[in-house]
Amino acid sequence: FSSSTEFLLPIFSFSASISVCYEMASHVVGYPRMGPKRELKFALESFWDKKSSAEDLQKVAADLRSAIWKQMAAAGIKYIPSNTFSYYDQVLDATSMLGAVPPRYSWNGGEIGFDTYFSMARGNASVPAMEMTKWFDTNYHFIVPELGPDVNFSYASHKAVDEYKEAKALGVDTVPVLVGPVSYLLLSKPAKGVEKSFSLLSLLPKILPIYKEVISELKAAGASWIQFDEPTLILDLDSHQLQAFTAAYADLESTLSGLNVLIETYFADLTAVAYKTLVGLKGVTAYGMDLVRGTQTIDLVKSNFPKGKYLFAGVVDGRNIWANDLASSLSTLQQLEAVVGKDKLVVSTSCSLLHTAVDLVNETKLDDEIKSWLAFAAQKVIEVNALAKALAGQKDEAFFVANAAAQASRKSSPRVTNEAVQKAAAALKGSDHRRVTNVSARLDAQQKKLNLPVLPTTTIGSFPQTLELRRVRREFKANKISEDEYVKAIKEEIKKVVDLQEELDIDVLVHGEPERNDMVEYFGEQLSGFAFTVNGWVQSYGSRCVKPPIIYGDVSRPKPMTVFWSSTAQSMTQRPMKGMLTGPVTILNWSFVRNDQPRFETCYQIALAIKDEVEDLEKAGINVIQIDEAALREGLPLRKSEHAFYLKWAVHSFRITNCGVQDTTQIHTHMCYSNFNDIIHSIIDMDADVITIENSRSDEKLLSVFREGVKYGAGIGPGVYDIHSPRIPSTEEIADRINKMLAVLETNILWVNPDCGLKTRKYAEVKPALNNMVAAAKLLRTQL
Ligand code: GLN
Ligand code: ZN
Fold first, then answer.
1. Which of 509, 545, 338, 464 is nearest to 758 (CA)?
2. CB neighbours (10 Å) of residue 710?
């Protein structure tokens, strides 16, 4: 059979010629930029550290782009995106394209270079960075444009055109992607000093001329398609905002003529009015819709889809790592084909693949069974094309059979199902779980036991993680040091942290979390139903990536996870030692969650596992237990109509974890943000005894909630200093902050603590800062 490859060649070209008759139409909304092994991250950081040149960085970037384009072309993708690469963020790229550089970066016009670009992204020695915020409900963060009536827009980055040409030179004709003009404005914020009444959308006539320049250049360079990402279309928009889409594309129509224009939406269903606006846009030939997160959109398509237009059907999930159920997608696509017409249906991803891991090929530690259930970006590209081929009558039977087998194995694998867990979680639905005694009576009972001063001081959990500490953990994981050596090293670290807190005279201590690399991973590794990747990185912001655990099966806790360390720590001190856990909602929101059951069911399962841990800690004599829900708010759905349901099961999950403890056990929770004005009632409904929250960067916002008369009876510790900065706050400054809080909150419920964990800080900063914090609390106690 040595001649088999020669034999294959003619067959290959034969099937290629068939595809002329049956057009396969496949599209990918966008692709991860970091590279399969985070090549871009390392190139960026080395450039920022001045260890490599701009040319070195550009070379890595160009190689990544070229590899991605060629990979998609080889897979058979027809509509391959370009300009989805970014050195930092695609919204910042749009800001550069429009020359909307805030004046503080002293940009002098001309093409924007790395200096100005990275100053906006990260700040420089004299100027802070632009604000960063979450991209819809993903964990990706974009740089928020700052706009006002005086911005002088100019065409200042030719990146979109350059990348189109670069791909073309490599033999790949791409679809250039731009952040759409209306979404760009809707995602921006008024610059400092600009009046509140200023309408960002009023800038539309000023930015459209720049878009026209870009479009004309793309046309001249040979582009036949263009993609505008307008994801804001899935938000709850008012008629004025919807009208802006109509106006913008009507204005662009003549410039766009001769091009096929795709408006891409993603992350949720379109409302009926948004759908109507979208399909009514002038000059537009194609609409991209997320049919994974959007479950109702398909009905809108079926009831009314404009004749002669293309539907880019997002059936392959860009937000997850699960292999597609190809048979089910194919049947959806066939239904859609009957509505929009055979040559007008394009198979696509639900959103950019930016939000999933890059390539399963690099997963050396996952077993074959789990791997067969997964598809990362590279595999999703293949799935998209397989579906397109099947629609065109060239179904790759072997591929579909293998996929069906994997789907079946996932459904029936004993590793996925644990009946006892299923039963226990199902029993929670519909019923309520809360502590019997109300919070003020509980606080009294706890105070009798804990005997804390007013304005008690505490910290959020982690203490600085030194290089030495990280080395110990790494070597233990790699079996380079024994368990005994590891335990000894961690115990010593805990002792150091306990002694330091006693010396500082902090009231409620923590063990410092030296055994934890990450607050979710630490628990995931000890729970059943979780798997971990080695290279499953997803961009969070700039060069930063996260590696979410994969929840593939029913979750249970084989044995206690933190009791040994917490009781060891408690044995070192007479003061109360906080047990430290991550809450179910945060574990859920920071993982890739299984898609074969509703999210709340998985959350309930995690809650039951954490409940076991809470109760074991209590039995071991731990009287204060903190259950972090750092990510509760970020799981809030995009659409307001879905908020209530999410908050109900999320808050319920939290309560499940601690509904079984005695009144004298004090339950703390911690949250990493303070703009919870809109969900304050849900937070109260969590019924924790004490909540510590990030606050120091936005005192006013938080306090206004209470000033407006929200009744808060539980303990509350709004952070008194920012742990994100190396700055050491003075005693007076902290006292001043506490005084402001005392003006709004009852003295006996106020706690004194930093904003968040101290993991990323140095001891040289932490010691004086905590010292001043305790001094401030003591000072105020004398004045009460
Ligand atoms: N207990 C965790 C810590 O102190 C909380 C971290 C967080 O809220 N992100 O590190
Ligand atoms: Zn925090």
1. 464
2. 13
Residue minimizing CA distance to atom 9 of ligand 1: 630
Q: For 532-578, write each residue's pLDDT tens digit.
A: 999 999 999 999 999 999 999 999 999 999 999 999 999 999 999 99
Pairing of strands 146-147, 189-190: parallel
Q: Tell me, what DSSP letter sits at residue 25?
A: -
Mutate to test the pocket of ligand 1, among 513, 519, 523, 759 (most ligand atoms within 8 A of CB): 519
Question: What is d(CA 643, CA 655) in angstroms, rounded to the nearest whole number?
Answer: 18
Closest residue by Cα to atom 4, ligand 1, is 757
pLDDT for residue 546: 94
What's the CA-to-centroid distance between 329 and ligand 1, angstroms? 40
What's the rounded Cα separation, in Å, for the pair 11 and 291? 35
Distance 694 CA to ligand 2 centre (A): 6
Task: Please indicate whether residue 433 is annotated as part of the active site.
Answer: no
* pLDDT, tens digit, 9 for 90 and up, residues 742-766: 998 999 999 999 999 999 899 999 9
User: Locate tokens 């891991």: which residue?
Assistant: 357
Atom of ligand 1 nearest to the CA of 582: 1
Q: What is the CB < 6 Å shell around ligand 1?
A: 460-462, 513, 519, 580, 628, 630, 670, 672, 756-757, 759
In this prediction the ipTM stands at 0.99
Which residue's CA is the closest to the ligand 1 atom numbered 6? Answer: 757
Q: Distance between CA atoms of 317 and 319, rounded to whole angstroms?
A: 6
**Lookup result for tokens 């063990």:** 511
In angstroms, the CA 161 to CA 468 distance is 48
Quick one: residue 193, left, alpha or beta (phi over 0 = left, psi -120 to 50 = alpha)?
left
